[in-house]
Amino acid sequence: MSSSSLLSAEPVVTTLQTALEGYVGFDTITQQIEKKLLKRGFHFNVMVVGQSGLGKSTLVNTIFASHLIESKARLSADEPPRQTTEIQTVSHSIEENGVRLRLNIVDTPGYGDQVNNENCWEPIIKYIKDQHSTFLRKELTATRDRYIQDTRIHCCLFFISPTGHALKPIDIVVLKKLSEVVNVVPVIAKSDSLTIEERVAFKQRVKAELVFHNIKLYPYESDEDDEQEQALNESIRELLPFAIVGSERNVVIDGKPVRGRKNRYGIINVENEEHCEFIYLRNFMTRTHLQDLIETTAQIHYEAFRAKQLLAIKESTQTTASNSHSIPNSALGGNNALPVSPNNNVNLVSPTQANKSTPTFN
User: Fold this and answer.
1) CA 353, 148, 224: angle at the middle one, nearest 5?
2) Which end of the chain is flanked by fewer CB atoms within 10 Å, N or C?
3) Are 47 and 128 in contact (CB under 8 A)?
4) Cβ distance 62 to 247 under 8 Å?
């Protein structure tokens, strides 16, 4: 047998279940991990997509029980309308019981507000992909940060207008585009404008359209989930789209202040599950699926983007001349080229060269 075949043979690993004869202490590893994570803090990035006037800012402020973002809708007749979909990011550091959360809220004012809404979703898709691209570039640098700041979108709240009829054609197109690159959670905005019967019928029509157009929404099915997680995810899918009502104001019910809306017909308590499904959405986003939203972004959407970009780099290098070990500028859409070795592996370069050799990803 040749030496090369001996080196390529995989070692045989035998795993045995062994009982401990005394306390060792490695069961504290979870406490060690928790301590480090608490010291570092967490990042959570939320994008809100929907037409102006659907209560996007109000809902985000209601979910996190604080005034985080201002409404971007036009409030006066002389205020000029936006000509394109704009991207605006607001960052907040909030803390609860010793847990620090860096919350980035990405608003998309102007989406769907024009007379001609053709391709109005493109700035949104581009922004999401740009965050993946930025993260990938930082990963590929020779002297990367110990902790890369994560600006990838973990959750996209898509606001559906409470028409009571069906999804608009533009909603279907945008949901298809978004579901390919981000975790999409649809919500029926201002659901108090519908009766209970209208709300149920509207949700069924929306679900039927999602199935008909093969639009995959979060949470996704996974073989790794245990029975309890599968049951929880199935209950969430049954609720989609969440029929919600948001409010930053407190109203008094039986002498107790609660977040709600008061009109001449009565009071709507946003945390009363008989009035709306806000409490299910809040629990889903913050208490049961926050970490899974972050992990799914990294393991599914970012990995798909990363694999596609690295495969494009590999294919580009194969088309270059044998004596040129770099990616052509035209392949990356810029003047910077990523040095690649003949076996298609990214070369490690010095910090000075690294700044000149970072690729531009599409």
Assistant:
1) 125
2) N
3) yes
4) yes
Closest by CA to 112, choosing from 154, 81, 75, is: 81
Token pair recorded at residue 220: 């996704």
pLDDT at 361: 58
Looking at residue 47, its amino acid is M
Tell which residue, 165, 169, 162, 152, has the closest CA to residue 186.
162
The encoded tokens of residue 264 equal 């001449």
Which residue in 36, 150, 160, 170 sits closest to 104, CA to CA? 150
Contacts of residue 91, defined as CB under 8 A and 6 or more positions apart, other chains included, come to: 102, 103, 104, 105
DSSP 21: S
pLDDT digit string, tens, across residues 172-217 = 999 999 999 999 999 999 999 999 999 999 999 999 999 999 999 9
Beta-sheet strands, E only, within 141-236: 155-160, 184-188
Give the model's pLDDT for residue 350: 39
- What is the predicted pLDDT for the residue at 34? 85
pLDDT tens readout for residues 270-310: 998 999 999 999 999 999 999 999 999 999 999 999 999 99
Burial 64-83 (b: 16+ CB within 10 A, else e): beeebbeebeeeeeeeeeee
Find tokens 């009502």 and name the residue.
245
Q: How far apart are CA 137 and CA 135, in angstroms?
A: 6
